[in-house]
Design goal:
- There is one protein chain.
- With 71 residues, this protein is mainly α.
- It is built from four helices and no strands.
- The longest helix is centred in the C-terminal third of the chain and has 23 residues.
- The protein is elongated, with a radius of gyration of 13 Å.
Length: 71
Amino acid sequence: SLALYERVHRALEYLREEKPLWYQVVCMAYLEEKSNREIAEELGISSNLVSQWKRRASAWLRKVYEERENV
């Protein structure tokens, strides 16, 4: 639904503002469909760090979505 889309969009905007590197990794992984290895090479970081940031971003997004959107 449109309301869900808007809430998810806002949560991603919060991530972009507060955790820009995590946001970049999430976009590269899920929008550009790049592998952890590809992301790591482009950003000059380890694949393990990419994995860690994706997990942390996911947890952060869930928390923010619930807190800020009162879901």
